[in-house]
Structures are given as structure tokens and as C-alpha cells.
Amino acid sequence: MAMPAYYTTKDKIWHYTFRVICYAIFFFLLAPILIMIPLSFNAQPFFTFTREMLTLNPDGYSLRWYRDFLGSDSWMRSIRNSFIIGIAATVVSTVLGTLAALGLSRAEMPAKGLIMGILISPMIVPLIISAAGMFFFFSSINIAQTYLGVVLAHAALGTPFVVITVTATLVGFDNSLTRAAANLGASPTRSFFKITMPLILPGVISGALFAFITSFDEIVVVLFVAGVEQRTIPREMWSGIREDISPTILAVATILVLISVALLTVVELLRRRGERLRGLTPQ
Amino acid sequence: MAMADARAEDLGPAPGTDSRGRLLTSDGTPLRRALERSMRRRKLTALALVAPLLAFILIFFAFPIAQMMWRSVDNPQIVNALPRTLDALQDWDGTTIPDEPVFAALHADMMEDLDRARRQQTIGPLAVRLNYEISAARGAISRTSRAVPNFEAPFKDDFLDAHRLWGQPELWRVIKREGRPLTASYYVAALDREYDAEGNIVRRDENRRLYVPLFGRTLALSVAITVLTFALGFPIAYYLSTLPMRYANLLMIAVLLPFWTSLLVRTSAWIVLLQQQGVINTTLVTLGFIDDGNRLSLIYNQTGTIIAMTHILLPFMVLPLYSVMRTIPPTYMRAAKSLGATPWTAFRRVYFPQTLPGIGAGGVLVFIISIGYYITPALVGGQSGRMISNEIARHIQQSLNWGLAAALGTMLLIGVLILYWLFNRLVGSDSLKFG
After folding, report:
1. Is residue B128 in some structural domain?
2. Nearest CA in chain B to A134
3. B101 and B173 belong to one structural domain
4. Would you tell me which CATH number, out of the four given (3.30.930.10, 3.10.150.10, 3.40.50.2300, 1.10.3720.10), belongs to the domain A73-279?
5. Which of A32, A100, A242, B27 is most buried, taking the most CB atoms under 10 A from its CB?
6. What is the pLDDT of residue B229?
7. pLDDT tens readout for residues B146-180
8. Cis peptide before B52, with omega less than 30 degrees from 0?
9. Given this model, what pLDDT does residue B14 score?
10. Closest CA relative to residue B163, chosen from B210, B103, B230
11. Per-residue pLDDT for B340 more than 70?
12. What global pTM score does this model have?
């Protein structure tokens, strides 16, 4: 937003005020997350900067909360659970979601609007209602408080993201490619794996990442459906915050922020790659 | 595909057509039928691809929710436990203590229940059910059911001796009213209403109204959060949309990082910042703006809920706004200004109306999400920042009044679905994008 030469003083003041306001809002967005990173190295069990920290005295900093985290059985178990449940749920929702997106993108698909509405409903229904429904149902078929129950619940919550991202990728898909493959003698399965799959892969992967992060970050359903054995990282943080809040939470939070930065990068790279790949086929 | 030229052939059908001139495929079936068949097959393939997910969602998502909603009207307890008593109550006038036949029937019902296997007993659920309506009922029934084997005819006095509640017409009115397989009573309670002695539905006393004010507060908080996210989101979305792509993508990280960061991380960040010994209060005290003695209470109340949820939901407002603003050509504003509009008029009359789809999308999205929010209010809301979801969770996990939880949940769900329908009408669900 370069400033044009004809700006009057009033325009200039407004121009700079507006920028200050915008940067203040960006600060509001980022500061709470970033401030936890230095605080997680606090040597004292406080949630504020100590005098030693402000004077950059090395004694003010320590790794004790990270040691606490790494040495705790319940935190370690929660990491294992988060990954087991997250990966299993992602596999289920990615496979089912991709198949459904392929079907939904076909012109012959009947009742498209209705089916799409049902498939993305897990994204719209408030989590507390999904969680309550699953709690009663899963208890009645004896899969509450099991890994299976949590995985199925998270898979259901993750599928809308896969369906939406893969459907979006398929919008630009050139069907003459699969027809050409069929013409050259490829079976439908072969043309799917050789032609369709590589082209929609970026969409599938970012859908899978969304599904994974949905499960990885999900807490409401876990609160209702999971037992002590299936506690995930958010569930452990929940009890940490409710029962005795210690800076260990901040160490965990810092690690989670780093994980989300990594995931964000991957998604962004995939998006660019996908755009480039699809840009190759002239419409 | 066989090509056919059915134009001028006098000597019998042309190759590839039948006697009536219809086109045929190479194996001799009429082309129209072959196409229909192939179309049907393609339709079935498409359906077969969708079927696994559809079945999965219907079984593990839609059905559980439908089942939960059913709980809000399901009412089998009294019918199952007291069939004879309900028969005997048919002719009761509803104002006095019932006569001996009713008590005899009650005795028979309770005696029969004692013979049942433990898992099939109906008195326990009956006591729980009646307790939702009259809070002494559970104690009355469990005490009576222990004493019932020693009762002798006439039973009326024995029952009245066992617990005074049997002598109150109110209990009998509840039994008669709720002695049906379906009930409206959970909705009556969820709307802060109750039955009076004549069986009319009336509003509760002012100080016993819980849920309507809570729904009101949930709505008010959601509106406040939506307005705040709009007030904060609009300027930065506009600013981002005026920047060259490269810088915009870089600054977009400030929006996307919170979006991708764990919800609990963001909530705990606000706890760290806002609590009495937290960063903000300590900074203000150090700078001398406030005394150490009156640190601000910024958390565990409505303020905490509003601040934390505005922060958490802001990306949901910025992303749709930004994607709409990117498509608005900057030339329109310049044209308006060159035609003599002041910057404010140009903004108000030309730019702003074009951002309305984005405002609609972001606004409804934020509103829908915040109206059903559970985690953040539960952690930072204290008493005054509680929302309807917290009450639903409390009834499921602590008070165990599942019917009431289901009624509240159904009302919330219907509200959200109406909003979503509006959202779809306004912008179409295609505009939901992430990242």
C-alpha cells in the first residue's frame, strides 16, 4: 500500500493510523501464542516474567518444565495416544473421504446436495452435541472408553475436511486424462493410481492433514468418549489447566506450536504444488 | 461407437439401425437403451463410491445424534414401572389423596418389581425419573420399596406411614401426567416453565429461571464475539488485500498460526496472560497503573470468555473476508473518488457493499461456532461466562438428567441448523475453505 503523492496531511495521518491499528491487531493475534515460548523456560513456577528473566540473567531460565514433561509417564502416554488415535482416524477418514469425493464429483451423482449436507454435518453440529450423542451410543454398543470408539469418533469429525479439500481439487480435474488412459488400455484401477491419484494427491494430503489436526486437537469428544487409558495431549492439558496449572503446560504448548508451524508449512507447500500441477493443464 | 446414417435408405434398414430407423449399437441393442444402461451403471458407480462414507456417517454420527434427540421426549420409566397404578389412577380427580384401589395397585406393581432380576428392575429408573420433577421422590421411593414386603391390606395407611410424599396430590399428579410413553416435560423445564396444580404450563418464578437467561446470555456473548471479530478482522483483511501477494502471504502467517495452533494452547495462553498474577496484571502493577491490591479480574468471568474466544475465532472472520476483498478491483474505489466522492463516501457506497458476502460468511461462521462453544467458556468463563454447552455437559456428566440435556441440546442443534441454512442461502457452503 504505497502512499500516493497527492495525499494531504489528513490522508497521511489516516494512512499511518490505519497501519498502526492493523499491526496492533496482528500483535493481538500473535502475542499470546509467542509469549508462552520464553515463559516456558522460566526457572520459577510462575506465569510471568521474573526479574532475572527480564535482565537476561541465565539463572532465570531453565529447562525444568521440559524435563518435567519428558519425565512424566502420563504426558508420554498422552503423546503416544494422540498419535495412535490421530493416525488411525486420519487413515479411516482419508480413505472414506477421498472415495466419497470422487463419487460426489461425478456428474451422474444423484441427490448431490443432500448427500453433501449429510457428509459435512460433523463440521457444523456443535461438538458438545456430537460428543453427547456419541457418548450415549458408544456406551450402548460397548465401545465407549476404548481406542476403537475414539478413533471412530475422530474419523467422523475429520471426514468433512477430506471431502471438501478433495472435492475442491477435483473441480479443476481434466476428465479427458482418464479417458485417454482408458483408451490406451488402462483398467479403471490402474488409471486411478497412475493418473488420477498423482494429480489429486496434494488435495488428499492436505485433507489428511486437516483430519489429523482435527483429531490431534480434539478434546470435547475425548472428554466424553475416552477413558483414562485413551487420554490424549489436549485431554492431559485440560486436566492440567483445571487441576494444577504448572508451567509444564507452557512447555507442552511451545512444542505444539512448533508442530503446528511445521504442519502449516507443509500445507502451504502442498497448496502451491497443487496449483502449479493443475496449472499445467490448459483449460 | 457405430455411426449410422439413417437418412435416405429405401431398401430396408441402414446398417446400425433397426426396422424403425432407431440407432443401434454394434451388438444390436437400441442406442438409447444402451446409453440409459451405461448412465445407470455410472450412477451406481458414483453411489458406490459415496456409500461407505455415507453409511459410516449415518451410523456413527447421525444415528447417535438422532438417538440423543429421542431421549428428550422418551419417557418409558413410569409406564414400565407402574402399569396397574396408572390404570387405577384413570378415574382420580387430581386434587385429593387417591383411594385404596390406587394404593393396592401401587403395592402390586412394587411387589412385582421385587421379583424381577436386578437388571430388569423398574423401580430404580422410576425413582430417578420422578426425582427430576419432585426432588424428594427418589428418597421416598427407595424407602418405600424396602418396606413394601411388610405392608398389609389396606395399603393406604402403610404407604402414608412409609413416606409423607405419598400423601401429597402433587406426586400423584406427576405420576398421572408423566405416565405416558412420550413426554414434553424436559422441554417444559428447558424453557423455564412448569406445570401448575391444574396441569397448565406456567413460567417459573423469577429466581428459578435458569435456561432461558442462559440461552439469552449465550446469544449475547456470541453476538458480542461476532461483532468484535468483525471490528478487528475487517481492518486487517482490508490491509492484507491491498498488499502485494508476497507481503500478504507473509503477514497471513499472523492469522494462520493462531488458526493452526491447538485450541487448548491458545486458551492456556490467555489464562497465563489474564490471571491475577499473570503477565498483563503484573505489567500494569509494575508500571504503576493499578495497585497491587486491586489487580483486574480479567479471567474466570465474561470478560475472559469474550477476550479468549474473540482471539480464537478471529481467523474464521479474516479468512472469508480476505478472500472476498481480494476479488474487489481497486479501480472501483478510484473511479468513485475521481467522480467526486469523498474517501468515506466511496468506501461506504462502493467498497463496503461488495464485501457483504464475506461479512455474511465470516459473521455466520463465527456466530455458529461460538454459540455451541464448550471448552473455552469451561476453562476461562467462571460462573458468569458459562454458556449453554456447559450446562448440557453438566447435565450429562454430573446431574445425570439426560432427558433435560437432550432437550437443551436439541434446541441448540435446531438453532445452529437454521443458522447454517441461512449461511448456505447467503453464501453457499462452497466458500468454506481452510488455510
Report:
1. yes
2. B64
3. yes
4. 1.10.3720.10
5. A100
6. 97
7. 888 888 888 888 999 888 899 898 899 999 999 99
8. no
9. 65
10. B103
11. yes
12. 0.87
Q: Is B396 on the interface with A (CB under 8 A)?
A: yes
Residue window 229-248, chain B: list those with CB within 8 Å of chain A. 232, 235-236, 239, 242-243
Question: For chain B, what is the domain count?
Answer: 3
| pLDDT (0 to 100) of residue B115 | 86
Q: Does A49 touch chain B (CB under 8 A)?
A: yes
Mean pLDDT score across all residues of chain B: 88
DSSP code of residue B14: P
Element (H, E) at A84: helix A73-104
> Which residues have C-beta within 8 Å of that of residue B22, sequence separation ≥ 6?
B30, B31, B32
Q: Does A47 touch chain B (CB under 8 A)?
A: yes
Distance CA(B345)–CA(A167), nearest Å, equals 41
pLDDT band at A39 (very low <50, low <70, confident <90, very high): confident
pLDDT tens track for B57-99: 999 999 999 999 999 999 999 999 999 999 999 888 888 889 8
Could you tell me if B155 and B260 lie in one domain?
Answer: no
Judge whether B370 and B429 are in contact, CB under 8 Å. no
Which residues are within 8 A (CB) of B26 and not within 5 positions of it... i.e. 6 or more apart?
B1, B2, B16
Measured distance CA(B135)–CA(B149) in Å, rounded: 25
Residue given cell 479468549 in the structure block? B308
